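Researcher: Structure for this, please.
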Amino acid sequence: MKPTAKSLTLLGAVLIVTAPLTIGTARADEHEEARRLREAGDILPLEEVIARVRAEHPGRIIETELESEGGRYVYEIEVLEESGEVTEFKIDARSGERIRYEDRDRDWRTRSEDRED
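Model: Predicted structure, token format:
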């Protein structure tokens, strides 16, 4: 193997070994940030938001995320509905209000678009 190929192979091996450590650290930082925001009263507890979603859409929660979008925090919650459809909800993390949702058969919809049906 040429020296450059050896260097690239070694670099690749190092990245493969250290990538999970970096991802784990990033997730730990995200959890710490979410805890801090919740304790400061900047966001609602995830459990409370999930309870609100389940009240309208019973099903299995398959994924949750806390994102920062447009200067506010948003919970993204995916629900496997009893019908077998997956619906993703975007919930304002401070107020608990549903911002919009998407199912696999439609594009993103807002609460006002729901009322038009």
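Researcher: Any notable elements?
Model: Residues 21-26 have pLDDT under 50 and may be disordered. The chain has two domains: 1-42, 43-117.
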